[in-house]
Design brief:
With 457 residues, this protein is an alpha+beta fold. It is 52% helix and 16% strand. The chain has three domains: 140 residues, 2-Layer Sandwich (Beta-Lactamase), CATH 3.30.450; 87 residues, Orthogonal Bundle (Helix Hairpins); 149 residues, Histidine kinase-like ATPase, C-terminal domain (Heat Shock Protein 90, 2-Layer Sandwich), CATH 3.30.565. The protein is built from nine helices and 13 strands. Strands 2-1-6-5-4-3 form a six-stranded antiparallel beta sheet. A five-stranded mixed beta sheet has the order 8-10-11-13-12, covered by helices on one side. β4 and β5 form a beta hairpin. α4 packs antiparallel against α5. Keywords: Kinase, Membrane, Phosphoprotein, Transferase, Transmembrane, Transmembrane helix, Two-component regulatory system. This is histidine kinase.
């Protein structure tokens, strides 16, 4: 069974990293100092061996007293230095600081060095010298080196241990200080996630560490966006319920009227059926608009292709003119106005704008559709001579169920979703829609689309 890896906290990660770093530094320092000290001692031993060899060449050591004299003149410790002389006749003479003769039989040489280890005697620096049919084997003890290394390693171990203890206490405090803002942020996020249907509170934003502060800032921006979306959804549901409640209540009221009074007053039947038909048609349009909005909200990637906006708009104007009383005028360039967009969506945008102009324009005032191209933008404008839209209302006209001049909302057909759908469709076409005043009165809706790149010849 595979063991599940438990996620580590900030404190655990920092403690482990710090411990590893400190141990690595301590090991590197120990090795560096040990190697440096060893090399220094080897050079000292080599210089002393050279001095001793030079003295032996000047004064031969035939007795132990001679050896002591030569050894003292070299500055060596007599207790850690001895010489073995191999005579020409094969005999061996040993000059030792004591009567004990080391056993050189089982000694072994350290590779690539003059160091030799003699069992029960220790580590020595060895050097050989041939002179007057004799071979002098010099052995200089490295006991001082080993003693210094032992002391050094002990001191470093104690120093590293104390540093590790103090460092872990410091790191624990530092880790808690660093992780506290993150933990508080996580707790606040959990509390916010526990109540997804309520307006999310602002998460605490620490000043340090800067990364956690930036993360909290990004979270708050995300929550603000989510709160706005949640508020719009609630308003949308409330407005949709309100818009649907009115025609349903009207239909039910007329059905009850027919049921109660049709026998004695049959004249109420045609009138009530007319109201039922009118309100059911209104409810049908509302549901269709809601479906359009739902599809637009779900749409993600739209394939934008080059389309001739002037030709498309002229065709829409030609087919729309018989449906309304206001005269329709079209102005467009003589050459194709190619823009990147979706043909069906642009057709729907223009139709919705013409519907809006038709509803709010006098029957004797013309509606003008204009297509123009400037630099890298193609504009599609619909201008009417209605009552116009105030600057305060312009900030809300693309919101769902918003109606300009609420006192006239019952006189003008519509659900307040048309311009919201237009705005959504324009965004899907990666365009922009703006509202401006017409002269002497009225409104101009202008849709800006990106011009299609010119084809290479």
């Amino acid at each position: 069974m595979k063991k599940t890896k438990v996620p580590r906290s900030y404190a655990a990660i920092i403690r482990r990293s710090f411990t590893t770093l400190l141990l690595t530094i301590g090991l590197v320092i120990t090795l560096t100092v040990s190697v440096t000290l060893s090399v220094d001692q080897l050079f000292r031993a080599q210089n002393q061996a050279a001095q001793l060899s030079s003295n032996l060449q000047i004064s031969q050591a035939n007795t132990f007293q001679d050896w002591l004299t030569i050894n003292r003149s070299s500055g060596l410790n007599a207790h850690n230095t001895f010489v073995v002389v191999k005579n020409s006749d094969g005999s061996t003479t040993s000059f030792l600081p004591s009567n004990r003769v080391p056993n050189l039989t089982n000694s072994w040489q350290v590779p690539f060095t003059h160091l030799i280890y003699i069992p029960k005697a220790g580590l020595y620096f060895s050097e050989s010298l041939k002179m007057n049919h004799k071979t002098y084997l010099l052995y200089i003890g490295m006991h001082v080196l080993l003693g210094n290394l032992h002391v050094l390693i002990a001191v470093l171990i104690i120093a590293i241990g104390l540093s590790l203890l103090i460092g872990l206490l410091f790191v624990r405090r530092l880790a808690n200080q660093i992780s506290r803002p993150t933990i508080e942020l996580a707790r606040a996020a959990q509390q916010a996630a526990a109540n997804p249907e309520t307006t999310q509170p602002t998460l605490p934003q620490p000043t340090e560490p800067a990364e956690v502060g930036q993360l909290a800032k990004d979270f708050n921006q995300l929550l603000a966006s989510q709160n706005g979306r949640l508020q719009r959804e609630r308003q949308f549901i409330s407005d949709a319920s309100h818009e649907l409640r009115t025609p349903i209540a009207t239909i039910r009221g007329n059905i009850k009227l027919i049921d109660r009074h049709s026998a004695k007053h049959p004249e109420v039947i045609p009138e009530s059926l007319g109201f039922i038909d009118q309100e059911s048609l209104r409810m049908q349009h509302l549901i269709e608009n809601l479906l359009h909005l739902s599809r637009a909200d779900r749409a993600q990637d739209i394939d934008l292709v080059p389309i001739d906006v002037a030709k498309l708009a002229e065709g829409v104007v030609t087919h729309y003119q018989p449906l309304i009383e206001q005269p329709l005028n079209f102005h467009g360039p003589a050459t194709p106005a190619m823009a990147l967009g979706d043909t069906d969506l642009v057709h729907q945008i223009l139709t919705a704008l013409l519907d809006n102009a038709h509803k709010y324009s006098p029957n004797d005032q013309a509606i003008t559709v204009t297509v123009a191209q400037k630099d890298d933008t193609v504009t599609l404008a619909v201008a009417d001579f209605g009552r116009g839209i105030s600057k305060a209302d312009r900030q809300h006209i693309f919101e769902r169920f918003y109606r300009v001049d609420s006192s006239r909302s019952n006189q003008v057909e519509g659900s307040g979703l048309g311009l919201a759908i237009v705005s959504q469709l324009v965004q899907l076409n990666q365009g922009h829609i703006s509202v401006s005043d017409n002269h002497p009165q009225g409104t101009i809706f202008t849709v800006s689309l990106t011009a299609a790149p010119a084809k290479e010849s």
